[in-house]
Design a protein that fits this description.
This protein is an alpha+beta fold and 643 residues long. Helix content is 35%, strand content 25%. It is built from 19 helices and 28 strands. It starts with a helix and ends with a strand. It binds biliverdine IX alpha (BLA). Biliverdine IX alpha (BLA) binds next to helix 2, strand 7, strand 8, strand 10 and helix 7.
């Protein structure tokens, strides 16, 4: 079964739910290798005992004849375990608080496995020098096996759907490798994961020794919370799991990143094996270091990648702010949209037009799909499973990202073809491999499965595509807006700048710059009669021709403006040392040449007012001054220049 199918499989869902109901924090029993007492913190009375210490029930803790034990039990929480002689052997006493109760656990020292500081410190040192997450994992599993002597050490990570993958392993030579294998979410149900967030290490010392019941005359021992206890008895489901797997004992460590259990490390042994509590504590620190270092490395990678992607996206879209050529920007640059969003093909539908690159399905049905997107993207690496309705319309497509553009009508569609993959499970995860619905897998024999109708998973690319679509949308809208703004500054007939433009330019504060400025006000003489005698169409043709002649006879750098009707202004910058009067004469002459419109030949003249502003004079009033000069020219008999 494919991991993503398994996550939706009704049997697996039921199993997850039922397994999570087992109250593992309150088993009312402990593991058989130790002894537990719960002591009333105020009175020192022993209110709960494990069966092997039944004689002590209801005694005061200082009556049992072990003064160190009594001290620890009354004072609460010493950091280090306390060593006591216990039934003829040395043992560690571990104390933690649980409300009104101090929980005291006595753990006989395992033979031949004293805590040694040096190998742990050496491992921590090696970890701090690692350069990559892979190296961190390798170091941790190798060092853990060296330090603990367990047969097999595995580090695994939980995926988004909670199923797990073994990512690193160190094992005895004769064992087969579990590296890269997948296991279902229900192997470690939700309540266990929650518990492992607060209890960072757990030792399970035997799958055979019967658990020791807890006794009390005061409380129901099935309500005593053993979440923080070292000796808490283990779920029978999980013990069965371990037996099926050939594990007699395990020691597991939590990997926590940003408050989430992202994975675990399990040391497993084929026979019973224990390590002392102080060593377990120090290995919890080692696991914590692995988690912190890999979280930091991941975060650095993520940031680096996101900065890079943002830069590349900016570079891809930059041309769109200057040009409408979407095709050139997205598909023809040094980097194309498919370099940024790795897919087999892409369709960009923007407004009525379609642009296509790479391998894409038939376009005809895509229009309807884009129209129905309704603001919500479609993100899938299994179209056949998630959208069978669409899969039918897109032969050959397994992965689809369809992202609507919010401000512009259209969407970006990215396609990926099928990639068949081989997934290997640590035993068939399905119900066929379990005697009952909630049973652990009976066989852990490697179980291969060919995954079909899936594309390469999109991962972060999905989010990056959404951001790209958003930025594209934005660029297109800004472009449309600036085009509108530009249009507002132009005369519709001639395409010349209009009065609004001129007013804005002259409104710029400050005096005329060192290069000087000149303003030429050009008014056609008696233009009204052209419209009256020849009609407006001819009138427009004349205006267009005059506009062309003014442009053609002014300097490139001059701005020819149509103020409206038959009035034009030529705005000249940088006129110091220029014979402005000569330019004005050239313009008036150019206008006066005959204009042919259809069969009519028209002779139009213009009157021109000229103002030259010396550097340092104010800009305001220039237009009025030129206007006044133009009237003087008209009064003086037209077709001339006044200044
Ligand atoms: C707990 N399951 C666990 C634990 C591990 C696994 C590591 C934590 C306890 C420990 O340290 O051993 C699973 N062990 C694995 C995996 C590997 C391994 C994946 O070696 C190797 C890759 N388990 C089931 C089913 C149920 C279930 C069907 O398979 C439910 C009915 C339950 N697993 C279950 C429970 C616990 C558990 C309840 C908690 C055990 C406890 O802490 O009491």
């Amino acid at each position: 079964m494919d991991p993503s199918d398994l996550a939706l499989d009704p049997d697996e869902l039921r199993r997850l739910e039922e397994c999570a109901r087992e109250p593992i924090r309150t088993p009312g029993m402990i593991q058989a290798h130790g002894t537990l007492l719960a002591v009333d913190a105020d009175s020192g009375e022993i209110v709960v005992v494990s069966e092997d210490a039944a004689d002590w029930l209801d005694l005061r803790v200082d009556e049992v004849g072990i003064p160190e034990l009594a001290d620890a039990a009354r004072t609460g929480v010493p950091l280090d375990p306390i060593r006591i002689p216990w039934r003829g052997e040395p043992a560690d006493v571990i104390v933690h608080q649980n409300g009104e109760l101090n929980i005291v656990e006595i753990e006989p020292l395992p033979t031949g496995a004293e805590y040694a500081r040096v190998p742990v410190v050496a491992a921590i040192q090696r970890l701090s020098n690692a350069d990559s997450i892979e190296e961190l994992r390798e170091i941790v599993v190798t060092e853990l096996r060296r330090i603990t002597g367990f047969d097999r050490v595995m580090m695994y990570e939980f995926q988004e759907d909670e199923h797990g993958i073994v990512l690193a392993e160190d094992r005895a030579l004769e064992l087969e490798s579990y590296l890269g294998l997948h296991f279902p979410a229900s192997d470690i149900p939700a309540q266990a994961r929650a518990l492992y967030l607060s209890k960072l290490g757990r030792a399970i010392t035997s799958t055979e020794a019967p658990a020791r019941p807890l006794l009390s005359n005061r409380l129901d021992t099935a309500t005593l919370d053993l979440s923080g206890a070292e000796l808490r008895a283990v779920s029978p489901y999980h013990l069965q799991y371990m037996r099926n797997m050939g594990q007699a004992s395990t020691f597991s460590l939590s990997l926590i990143e940003k408050g989430r259990l992202t994975g675990m490390i399990t040391c497993a042994h084929g026979t019973e094996r224990r390590i002392p509590v102080l060593l377990r504590r120090s290995l919890e620190v080692l696991a914590g270091q692995l988690a912190v270092q890999s979280a930091a490395m991941r975060e650095i990678d993520r940031l680096r990648h996101s900065v890079e992607v943002r830069e590349r996206r900016g570079a891809l879209l930059a041309p769109l702010f200057a040009s409408d050529d979407i095709t050139a920007a997205l598909f023809q640059g040094r980097e194309t949209i498919l370099d940024l969003i790795p897919a087999d093909g892409v369709v960009a539908r923007i407004g009525p037009s379609w642009r296509v690159a790479g391998e894409v399905p038939p376009l005809a049905p895509l229009g309807g799909i884009v129209d129905r997107l309704d603001g919500t993207p479609i993100i899938t690496d299994s179209l056949a499973r998630d959208r069978p309705d669409l899969a039918e319309l897109m032969p050959g497509v397994a992965g689809l990202l369809a992202i609507p553009l919010a401000e512009n009508e259209g969407a970006l569609l990215f396609f990926r073809g099928e990639v068949t993959r081989n997934i290997t499970w640590l035993g068939d995860p399905g119900s066929g491999n379990r005697p009952e619905g909630t049973s652990p897998r009976a066989s852990f024999a490697l179980w291969q499965q060919l995954v079909r109708e899936r594309s390469e998973p999109w991962g972060d690319v999905a989010e990056e595509a959404v951001e790209l679509a958003h930025d594209l949308d934005h660029a297109l809208s800004r472009r449309a807006e600036s085009r509108l703004a530009e249009l507002a500054m132009r005369d519709a007939l001639t395409g010349l700048h209009n009065r609004r433009y001129l007013v804005e330019r002259l409104a710029t504060r400050g005096p005329v710059g060192p290069d000087g400025k000149a303003l030429l006000f050009v008014d056609l003489d008696d233009f009204k009669s052209v419209n009256d005698q020849h009609g407006h169409e001819t009138g427009d043709a004349v205006i267009l021709e005059v506009a062309r002649r003014l442009r053609a006879n002014s300097r490139d750098r001059d701005d020819v403006v149509r103020l409206g009707g038959d009035e034009f202004v030529v705005l000249m910058d940088g006129v110091a040392g220029t014979d402005v009067h000569a330019i004005a004469e050239r313009l008036v002459e150019a206008v006066a040449a005959p204009i042919v419109v259809g069969t009519a030949v028209l002779q139009i003249t213009a009157s021109c007012g000229l103002v030259v502003a010396e550097p340092g004079t104010p800009r305001v009033g220039l237009l009025e001054a030129a206007d006044a000069a133009m009237y003087r020219a008209k009064r003086a008999g037209r077709n001339r220049i006044a200044s």
